[in-house]
User: Fold these one by one.
Assistant:
Number 1:
Amino acid sequence: MIAAGLADRLAAITGPDGLITDPVRLRTYECDGLTYHRATPAVVVLPETAEQVAAVVRACHRAGVPFVARGAGTGLSGGALPRADGVLVVTSRLRRVLSVEPENRRAVVEPGVTNLAITEAAAPYGLYYAPDPSSRQVCTIGGNVAENSGGAHCLKYGFTVNHVLAVELVTPEGEIVWLDTMDPGYDLLGAFIGSEGTLGIATKIIVRLTPEPEAVTTLLAAFPDVESGGRAVSAVIAAGIVPAAIEMMDALAIEAAEAAVRCGYPAGAGAVLIVELDGPAAQVVAEHERVVALCRESDAFELRVAEDPALRAAIWRGRRAAFAAVGRISPAYLVQDGVVPRTALPEVLAGIEALSARYGVRVANVFHAGDGNLHPLVLFDDGEPGAGARAEAVSAEILDLCLAHGGSITGEHGVGVDKARHMPKMFGAADLDTMQLLRCAFDPAGLANPGKIFPTPRLCGEVPGVRRAPHPLVASGEAELF
Amino acid sequence: MDPELIDDCVHCGFCLPACPTYALWAEEMDSPRGRIHLMKQHVEGTPLTPEMAGHFDACLGCLACVPACPSGVRYDRLIESARAEVERAHRRPAAERAFRALVFGLFPYPRRLRALRLPLRAATAARPWLRPLLDRLPPRLGALAELAPPLPRPIRLPARVPARGERRAVVGVLTGCVQREFFPAVNAATVRVLAMEGCEVVVPAGQGCCGALSAHGGRTAEAARFARRTIAAFERAGVDTVVVNAAGCGATAKEYAELLAADPEWSARARRLRFADLAEYLAELGPVAERHPLPITVAYHDACHLAHAQGVRAQPRESLAAIPGLRLREVPDAAMCCGSAGTYNLFQPAAARELGDRKAANVLSAGADLLVSANPGCTMQIASAVRRGGRDIRVAHTAEVLDASLRGLSPAALGRPGPGAAEEERRS
């Protein structure tokens, strides 16, 4: 659907081996980890160097063709959803670990390197890369930067933005620039991380490496219900303990994980809590005793402690597999990603349960309890007419519920295409317009991943907030106003 | 291609890092998730294009994606049915058809393999002089010639071997095709180890090919024919447990009931017969024979059809590690296929070569004297890649290492030279 001239120029940049135009092959790129939204890209390019990425972007810019960046295609908000009229720039072949510098506690990697591969490269030096999305063995660092990904251990260690020291990126006009935490002036690196591919494409990332803690202990606590588990979480945080992670799974999520990886969680649990403590050995021992006591006070009926890596991996196996494991108990599902204040957890969970009952839609709950980041999994049968729409409705109401409790529509999966329409519920028109000004500073032509984050496409140069005539895209029928 | 099995995939991508072709090319359509997407397109009405067939052909069938999948997608069944669909609906170029006919008309037939011994022996002996000619062969035929191992003398196994000491079990042994003709010492070692561990061993004549090659190649009807003959042979022998020492054969034999599902009588007969890998069976049986010291450093290679398809990873390592004096080394990136994958190195020589080179580098980095694996294809492939890199490594089957320990042999007795070694032996 793009001009043949552009395809030829792209082939000249990446070589025929790096360009996909066959319609059957193109369709395999029609969605990322969120299968609910699909669009077959006009072409796919697989560049192997930053210079090739820059040349591809320049070619798009010259031709006025939109482009979307994609890593491993595991995103859960449709951030890498292609454009039917655009180029999909896949960074999967940019996968070299360029250097590991233990003395500087940093590594320089290309965007297609997986999150786990960074930790593996750093492991010989007693270092690791802290943010750990559950998909860490497959998701790429480029995608992590784009979505400012989190993970179970973000409670103590922070998100991607806290672990990226510098990024080399290709601007939407095809220029290669570096953004660095050390840059004086505005924090452009901070703006770029989490920009979901709308401000450019990262081509090199310098990440911070963290020393492995002296001691780690992982506790699995089984509770009769989600409420008592929630009480334990609040008690732990109130006691001044900052665990490396506190994760909760409800009965339905446990059932799925059990079916998938036979994680062997205690039978009959209405909720399990995974509490991981790390740090100096003496501190871990003291905190561990305190956490065990607090769990018991909150009616935990079984406690298991893993002190060695194999047992720890066994406990985490169920949690990490939880999303995809839901495929075992349901033909299809939507993963939601809302945030609420920790104190509102019990109320919000009760609200989700009520929604589930009202719509007759099952909802499994997996969440980073420590920072109030919920991942409700809304189950449905995609073969049943109307079921998808019903699940979507439940999913949307869950976000409303989070917002009503002073929360957010996303904790770590990004806004993407999935939640763009919820942005106006969180931000006023003036806020959204201000964000557009930032976007326009990077991408005046509006070609970098258009249609993501913001509900209404807008051209730069338009006066924010004052629309005298219909938007050009609306007038041409390419977009509609909500 | 069963749409229900396709729908089990939730598109999470956890299979990507496990997939050897994704590791090579980093393209969606050469990943398990992408291939399942292609299958979905096909069942939804897209015709089977040559491009689509090419991506199914490029899959090694190593099944590393199966244990990696949290949703329990049966990729093994999906890819076999996709291959069957390719055989049915896709017309390959003439040269490719001829080569496939040659391979599938040769390997599953021990008698035909045997008939090839003399010309192969001559060709092996002449290899140094034939080298320029080999280099000019089409890559696929070149791969075939390069992989051929030096031919050992045939070993005739007795039809029944009594248990040493108290009889603890009666088991059959599947002798295979390539294993039987090219590695008869492995079968002999398997029978001896079982007997020394107290098994009465039955080696029925007329068992032939188990059908693995055909099943993995999408030739389902042919595979079912081989399966029925194998089942009948072991029923006649009066055993209910059959020990298998080749990973690919064991994986297929364990799924006979699924392969024969269309025929209730035969699938019931398949379910009555239990197939077990040698290491798996010995671990269940528990050791009784004395292990003599075997001072040697061993790198254990996971054959895909043992580790991924059968889930047998711990048992061979434990039985090797239990040998006094034996030092066991792990191969980095152990779960990644070596590129042999049944007939893959014949049909897709370039990709197989690249994977072979990667595996060879990893095996050499383990710094072992001996490479041990439970699949003849893997050891041929890795040894040939090691030699291509100008190095050498001796290879043995798990059964041979155990046999050497049980019989108190010296480590020097262990380890066949790899393919291409015959010419050097002649020179020395």
Note: The longest helix of chain B spans residues 220-237.
Number 2:
Amino acid sequence: MNDTSTLKPGHIQGETGIWEMVIGLEIHAQISSKSKLFSGASASFGSEANRNVSLVDAAMPGMLPVINEFCVEQAVKTGLALNAKINNVSVFDRKNYFYADLPQGYQISQFTKPIVGEGKIIVDLDDGEQTTIGIERLHLEQDAGKSLHDQHPTKSYIDLNRTGVALMEIVSKPDIRSPQEAGAYVKKIRSILRYIGACDGNMEEGSLRADCNVSVRKSGEEFGTRCEIKNLNSIRFIIQAIQSEAERQVDILEEGGTIDQETRLFDTSTGETRSMRSKEDAHDYRYFPDPDLLPLEFTENWVKDIKEKLPELPDSLKKRLVKDFGITSYDASILVEEKDYVDFYQQAANGRDGKLTANWMITELFGALKKDNLSFSESPITSENLGELISLISNGTISGKIAKEVFSEMMKSKKSPSEIVKEKGLEQVSDDAEILKLINLVISDNQDKVNEYLSGKDKLFGFFVGQVMKLSQGKANPGVVNKLLKEKLK
Amino acid sequence: MPNKDTIVDVPTVNKIARLCRLDIPEVNKESLTNDLNNILGFVAQLDEVDTSNVEPLASVTGHKLPLRSDDVNDGNIEGLVLKNAPESSSGFFVVPKVIE
């Protein structure tokens, strides 16, 4: 068996040595526009079949495409957020192929002159490390329709509602070196798109999907032949598909075989990739500039206006959270993943202990939501209530232990923590006299242990603290208990 | 005007036909190849002009690409959209199965 314990992610131990993965991603992000890229039909998801189809989308003869300004703006905005070069002149091309859900017989896309050129983003890895991934380009294109193959034994059913919906294809450079990095890259792109509102990032509904180009090589060697895994719609599948595809390639190469450059599909039931039916001419798309569309041009000033309106992005927010709230860079990277998290955190932590708030939000709140199968927006605990809980802990009204009890109650009843503390009489007892009473009780009940302690068995101190806490039903202030016990047992 | 260089041969015609989903009878292929070569040879005369310092011309009218605002003002015409379909069912186009 391979010893994988010391193997880095993205490395595969073969018979002939260690192989390294080389990965590039093409992300298709549906633009959050109301109407389509070149027609006024609705771009909404889940309508009756062929309801959101105009004569342009149906490719009726003589219909002309007119571009949606909002979509152009989103592409520029995304380009700026990816630190990329904006091309003030870009061109639409026809990518020709035949398929039942592509009534035009071609997809309008951008080939030689995309709207956005090279850029780069910083990606946060699980171990707290960061890496920079290059962006090759971003272009605008039309989505295709949807074919249903399971409605009839010999027929396919075609719904053109998605036909012509605006997509941004974001192409990375082959800078990614492990499945985990690929996952983190998609997460980061998704997060940026959601911050700026260019795409809702909903992977279940297909608003964000990725094609993964995978090859393997020995460290330092030239890139190997790559295969493309099509249409992955979850980060988990992306990670699984890349790992399994890279292992397949290593097996072939080690047996002396060669990799055929081809398009593959990921079978979620087997966790393996398989070849799509071979379409020898599939890649002969015969691109040419679309004669129905003039080049897309805009001014530097228009780009500048968009740049000025960009919201604060995750990287800058992360730095600010670390600086303003004193939390770790790792916690900050979790909090900035979603705009909703940051907003919630900033409200809850405002004027309070930032680290404590981050702990409670990341460990307790995220954990409880996951356990109850709730999304973040469905949280029964508001930012005000979590903040109040933090205050109650910080000012000593309740102990950390009692706070967990209050927290569970907050998840259940949606009540404010102070209400719960009052109702259940959970205030922490910090009064010396009251605690001393409990201490005296514990001492008189455990005289033998007191003697042992006094003759040098220091470890028993914890036992006394525990007994006092138990007697107080967890309400005694542990700091005060410690202090008074020490004095008492001198 | 017959051209000196053959640009297209029969295999190329076969390939283009397949990409275009055109069924070309075998007897027509030779003449089609000649026609295509004549057409391409005629157009190839443009290559004699040096355009290395000329920007591609997208339009002679001076018009810019018109933009529209993001409004939903089309669609809801599934009857019209499906009207010419050889076959349709419950709002879908129905076509021969495209996967095996």
Note: The longest helix of chain A spans residues 235-254.
Number 3:
Amino acid sequence: MAGPLDGYRVVEIAEGVAGPYTAMSLGDAGADVIKIEQPAGDRARGWSPQTDSGTSALFQALNRNKRGISLDWSSESDLETARQLLADADVAIVDKAGLSGELSWESLDAPGLVYCAISGFGPHGPWSDNPMSELAAQLASEATASLGTIGEEPVRHGGDIGSMYAANYAIQAICAGLYARDDSDPSAPTGGQRIEVSLFGSLLAMRSTLWVALSNPDEWWGFHLDSYVKPPDHGYQCRDLPIYFSLARIRGDAFDSLIDELGMDWARTHPDFDQLRTDGAGGAGRYAAELKPLWERGFSNFDAERVIEIVERHGGWAFPMHDYERLSRDPQVAAVGAIIDVEQGDGSMLQQVAPPWDFEGTPVSMNMRAAPSLGEHQDEVLAELHS
Amino acid sequence: MPGPLDGVRVFDLTLWMVGPWASMHLGALGADVIHIEQPGVDPRTLGAGVPPAINGTSVGYITWNMNKRGLFLDLKSQADRQTAYELLQTCDVFLINMRPGAAERMGVGYEQVVAANPNIVYTAITGWGEIGPMRDKPGADVQCQYFTGFWSVNGKRDGKPEVYRHFTQMDASTGNVAAQAVLMGLLARKRTGRGQRIHVGMLRAGMALQSGRIAEYLATGAQHQPLGSAGFAAAPDQAFQCQGGDWIGVAATSEDEWSRLCQALNASEAQVDGLSDLVVDPRFATNLDRVAHRDALASLLQQAILQRPRRYWMLRLADAGVPCGYPISFESLQHHAQTIENGYLREITTSGWGDVWTGGPPWELSRTPARWFGTPMPGEHTGDILDDLTKRRASTAEPTPVIGD
């Protein structure tokens, strides 16, 4: 089916998170993706947690819409097969773990190929050869400074954000490389090129607001700065669940009414009561951490849903803090179709997250192909190559 | 060398962060991004006025509007609206992030823009989506981090999950996804000859960012509980304390890395009972075994790593091909060879706010390199852009479209 990248062919020689998600996104958008695994298979197949099929849920979620073959880099004929596949492709997505040194950009005879290498720390510098690691990249880029308590054991973001950020940047650069190739003057074609993206560089780019904030601010305060030293933020605990809450436009009479309705009359004699009225009293505000116990004492008498209703009615902002279980049941998530069913080889269904773009002219097909078993499409792909 | 999007022009009707972040990256890739601001806008309100500021302007605005030119247009004025339609005829991409319905009220809904330029790649960014019970709610980064569970997988071991205290990551991720969508729309236009309307919402972009973790929940019904520095998928993959108290992150997420880590630990001659048998210990035979016994494994590794300083382990592990890294602060990163040689942090001169440090570009393209240049003042290039339109008017017979609202 169509999709904006219909007609493009992609070869993925990568494993784990970043490379596979990049390739899957191009496949979701309509490209024909061939995933090459070495005989040991993508390392993510053996990660936890596993599904009933004996492969990790993560692998299933990051490898749909691909055909899979297995090649052994110790075999010269397999290397030659890979070279032929790359010569026929528009895009290569490679990482060091998946790649043989004999398939470097420079060694290939593929002038139109957009060749994207994803690494842990970037192509230059003392760590250019260090193996890719989500944890190492998060630590080195300061991402862990936004979690935990300063001076204690680092806390990582549990969402593989370095790998996912790198993938999102790789998708951009690959599409830009294809555009440069296909848009260029035929008498002086731009051709393909080599692209480099890293987890470390992507994490640093995503924290740019902090770097500007740390440059020369008028005042050394603001949530781009004090987040470094704030305590861990668990949201505002109500009787049942936590919420996010901010006063926003709650002022004057509305504020007094809010205090009444939350049964917080006791707060009027509290020494910090005047602070409660200020901009910094909620959300990520300046005094939020100090004032949170007062709000939570009020919120503890109500369920989250009720607190959200009260706050919104008074002109504030309040949102539920969903875990994935509550998120997956939320009516808005259903309305926008954020979760899709992907039929597996055995006919069972696995739920996954939908691709994030809506193309009205070249819609993405939601009829997804399940992640391949190791070498599942070997004969099919090799037959195409020799036809 | 020009960038990959050389010749592409973007009509950038974006504000706050998510839209500006998208267009900033298109500008870095070589597109001529024309960022629209209301004439006479108060600089203190730019970027939602979120502190800290530099020369009175939120650092957000300064960060998110690099790689652009600035144009004043008042879309409430009929004359400026006609200028907008004329400018749109010269553009390839239209980009907006406002709540559903706002574009139509400003005269730049899809039908109105297509009337001026039928081949435009029109991209609308929303918070919660264009449908559903929450479509009209304010959708900012903070709300989306909380709503999508971005907080639910982080935290100290055995502690409550905690929020990632950098409220830009959902905006930036959605902006990145929007830039992807624009690029894909441009590629589709090459093939089909037609532009189209594209939509990206923060809710779905934020969930896509968490594709792996959410799919794990959906497949197993189990919500991850925070593990401190440790990863869920593999073991070992966590921070350990070295001699002297410094932290180092050590990961072995493949069988190959695991055996190399075992070799490096043995070569260190650290004295720990059972260390030399790690590689044959049945508790640690496969990744799933190591995950099942992650505490016992971590205890053994911690005892060994505590016996040597961090510099030792960084050299020993990197040399053995074992993934490792340690926490570095911005002040050190500014001068670190890894950031300098890759251009990952750079000092950029802006029009009204002096020199600032920022990240990027995050890609290296060998034949069509990306660029990064400083933020313009609002409307800074109004004269240049309007002069070009005047010249174009004189040189083409094409009439300016008159589009009613």
Note: Chain A has a mean pLDDT of 95.
